[in-house]
Design a protein that fits this description.
The complex is a heterodimer of chains A (about 230) and B (about 475).
Chain A (H helix, E strand, L loop, with lengths): L14 H4 L17 H4 L2 H4 L3 E5 L3 H14 L4 E5 L3 E3 L1 H6 L7 E5 L9 H15 L5 E7 L5 H14 L2 E6 L11 E8 L10 E11 L7 E7 L6
Helix pairs in contact in A: 6-7
Chain B lengths: L2 E5 L3 H10 L7 E4 L8 E4 L1 H5 L8 H7 L4 E3 L3 H15 L6 E3 L6 E5 L10 H14 L5 E5 L2 H9 L6 E4 L3 H10 L9 H9 L5 H6 L2 H7 L2 H10 L16 E10 L2 H21 L2 E12 L4 E6 L8 H15 L5 E12 L2 H8 L4 H16 L4 E6 L9 E5 L23 E9 L2 H7 L1 E9 L10 E8 L2 E8 L4 E7 L1
Parallel strand pairs in B: 2-4, 7-8
Antiparallel strand pairs in B: 1-6, 1-7, 2-3, 5-6, 9-12, 10-11, 10-12, 13-14, 15-19, 16-17, 17-18, 18-19
Classes of the chains: A alpha/beta (about 230), B alpha+beta (about 475).
Chain lengths: ~230, ~475
């Protein structure tokens, strides 16, 4: 190791030397999986740049928003198109939609990707001024420039803000994200849960906080609840 | 006693009577415009006794009563008259508020008048005499709240006179028992209230605010909101607003940086004059005139009323850079909207570290760059149609956001969350149904069926048990309302 880094000051150790499993891709077994509170809550995501994607990404986001609001933090939702989460559904999850500030910005002077550029600028302004501790950027198929992501990550760490980017695909935001989570609906989990119950699986594709990958299955009501 | 209401009933008619010096036996009407189809707005007693009613067209009214005299009153005349009355009322109280919503209604702050007049009634008599001497018939009521005194005035049987209540409870009882028809509601709102069996003021004020905003027109909404304010608002004294404006000549500039160089000094001068008057800048309205006589109007709102020139310059620069005006600019008009500076407003600037202030600054910067409508808040609405179940409100005017109490939420029954398209997207049903199964539906909504509104049939489509699409048909066509995510 010393041969690889000859200029390293004495006493400085690499993460992989401190934590043997750091950097390895080990999936937890169901029995030893960390509880949801420690990996998928507002507190655990504070200070991270999170990429969330998958078929149940909006549903998976709601517990985090509810958690933030329970702790007295307002949420800012940055829109990048003419769609938004359905507020009555969020209300059903215990999220106070009235306390979510929605920023819908378009950079009219940018010919390419005006929504994403505007979203990046707006998020940067909000984070730099420490206006919110929970910011959701609903990017969809769009992506943010590396420079913007880098600034967002720095602000998120510095001010302990949870910056959650909801995207349509795996890895759209590149390697800068701290946590990348896939959330997909699954059929009814097992007979014990009863009829009319749906589940979604939260799977960490990347997690710099724990350096290990985790999975959780969360239950929610089925399509009947959408009446 | 805390306040008094002075109502000049049928203000326009009184203006005409004063102007034309007509005899009371001559049937007189106020019409909205000088044309045959114009609506009759107000009638004097002689015309009413002859069987005429307001709302008729002038042609019809004259065919029923050929000797009818009709006149119009301009907005300038009304404004002049209101200003005249307000000036006269200042002789009796230092606090006079002219209600912007209804012409001819004034409130006076009566606190402190006890040392100058023997009783509130004696004070009211003098006000009455002063108005009567200059030809205005007025109803004067003494009470405890602005809305309460207004309702007391509206329910007086006499056209002019004085009425007083001794306690706030007495005033509240009088308001509760007053007929709702005493409020100046539109004909449509009155009909709707009659259908609902709402006749008393108490019943009207008991209606939930979101329902009133959903089902009634603006005037009813505003009156309901005014009456239901939890914290009583004292008389809002009129402060004359002097517009602070300037015109700047721009020598054919296209670059926003060059334009800013011409704007900075005049802006500083304007802000200085605002500061000298003890005011603060609420917003800056900037109108740029280009070589083709085009006008680019924009309004910049700082996070809080202030005299911070640097911040105002920053906001204007951000807006100009975002707008990117291509043509050559020849002239700029700058108008500063101001508010009174009080100690509470000034305190806001000393508390720079508060999160609320930081948020306001962040929103001000975002609004400057992306437009004033870029920061919004959501309010849930009571409606059947999905796109009407919520509405966006300007986050800057947080007081306008109606709150709908949904009550207890059973989170265990919370289902998947839908993404809603703010405008439904047309879709091909064959393509949709060939790739997905019906998981829920048909669910039929018939909004506004009583006025012939077309119904919608909703479906949730998906694969297996997993929902994906949220669509509906309104008969001939199919629409995608959203996705389940």
């Amino acid at each position: 190791m010393t041969a690889m880094f000859p200029d390293r000051p004495a006493g400085l150790m690499l993460a992989r030397e401190l934590v043997p499993e750091a950097g390895t891709r080990r999936t937890y077994a169901a029995s030893e999986c960390p509880d949801t509170e420690s990996v998928w809550s507002f507190n655990s995501l504070s200070g991270s740049l999170v990429e969330l994607y998958g078929s149940s990404s909006l549903t998976a986001l709601m517990p985090v928003l509810r958690d933030a609001q329970k702790q007295g933090e307002d949420v800012c939702w940055i829109q990048t198109d003419t769609t938004i989460f359905f507020p009555p559904d969020a209300h059903a999850h215990g999220v106070d939609a009235g306390m979510i500030y929605v920023v819908c910005a378009v950079a009219g002077n940018e010919p390419e990707n005006p929504y994403a550029i505007a979203a990046g600028k707006a998020a940067d302004t909000l984070l730099r001024l420490r206006a919110f501790r929970c910011v959701v950027i609903d990017l969809g198929p769009r992506t943010l420039r590396m420079a913007v992501l880098s600034r967002l990550l720095r602000c998120a760490r510095l001010y302990n803000v949870a910056v959650i980017c909801r995207t349509d695909g795996n890895g759209l935001l590149g390697s800068l994200v701290s946590v990348r989570v896939e959330a997909n609906f699954e059929g009814p989990p097992d007979e014990g849960h009863g009829a009319g119950v749906l589940a979604y699986r939260l799977r960490a594709v990347k997690d710099r906080r724990t350096s290990v990958l985790w999975e959780r299955i969360q239950r929610c009501g089925s399509a009947v609840c959408l009446r | 006693m805390q306040c008094a209401c002075v109502e000049i009933p049928e203000l326009r008619l009184q203006i005409i009577t004063r102007r034309e010096q007509t005899d009371t036996s001559v049937p007189l009407a106020v019409i909205e415009e000088d044309r045959p189809a114009a609506q009759v707005l107000e009638l004097n007693a002689a015309a009413r006794d002859a069987g005429l009613r307001t709302g008729l067209s002038y042609t019809l009214a004259q065919s029923l009563l050929p000797e009818l005299h009709a006149h119009t009153v301009t907005d300038t005349e009304i404004a002049h008259c209101r200003s005249d009355i307000r000036d006269r009322l200042y002789a009796f109280s230092p606090g006079v508020e002219a209600w912007e919503r209804i012409q001819g209604v004034f409130w006076l702050d009566t606190q402190g008048t006890g040392r100058l007049w023997s009783s509130p009634q004696a004070w009211a008599s003098e006000v009455y005499s002063a108005l009567d001497a200059c030809g205005y018939s007025a109803r004067i009521t003494l009470g405890f709240s602005r809305f309460g005194t207004y309702v007391l005035a509206r329910t007086m049987k006499e056209r002019a006179g004085i009425r007083a209540v001794n306690t706030a409870d007495e005033e509240q009882r009088a308001v509760d028992h007053a007929p709702v028809t005493c409020l100046p509601l539109s004909l449509r709102s009155r009909k709707r209230l009659r259908k609902l069996g709402i006749t008393s003021m108490h019943a009207f004020l008991s209606l939930p605010a979101p329902d009133v905003s959903a089902r009634f027109d603006r005037s009813a909404r505003e009156l309901h909101s005014f009456a239901c304010k939890e914290t009583p608002v004292p008389v809002q004294n009129h402060v004359p607003e002097v517009p602070v404006t300037t015109r700047i000549h721009l020598p054919d500039l296209t670059n926003s940086e060059q334009v800013m160089r011409f704007l900075e000094d005049p802006l500083q001068q304007l802000v200085l004059s605002v500061m000298n008057r003890g005011l603060l800048v609420r917003s800056v309205e900037l109108t740029l005139h280009d070589e083709h006589d085009g006008r680019h109007h924009t309004e910049l709102i700082p996070s809080a009323p202030s005299c911070d020139v640097k911040m105002l310059i920053k906001l204007i620069r951000m807006r100009l850079e975002a707008d990117r005006i291509g043509s050559r600019l020849e002239q700029a008009d700058m108008l500063l909207q101001t508010v009174r500076s009080d100690s509470r407003t000034q305190d806001l600037f000393d508390k720079g570290a508060e999160p609320g202030t930081k948020r306001a600054v962040a929103f001000a910067l975002i609004r400057a760059e992306f437009g004033n409508a870029s920061v919004r808040r959501i309010a849930l609405q009571d409606s059947h149609l999905p796109e009407e179940k919520f509405a966006f409100f300007d986050a800057h005017n947080a007081t306008d956001i109606p709150v709908l109490a949904y009550g207890y939420v059973d989170q265990s029954a919370a289902g998947p969350v839908r993404r809603v398209f703010l405008e439904p997207v047309p879709c091909d049903p064959r393509e949709l149904f060939s790739s997905a199964d019906i998981l829920l539906g048909p669910v039929r909504y018939a909004p506004r069926w009583w006025i012939g509104g077309s119904g919608r049939t909703y479906y949730i489509l998906g694969h297996g048990e997993i929902p994906e699409y949220w669509c509906f048909t309104d008969g001939p066509s199919w629409w995608l309302q959203g996705l389940v995510q």
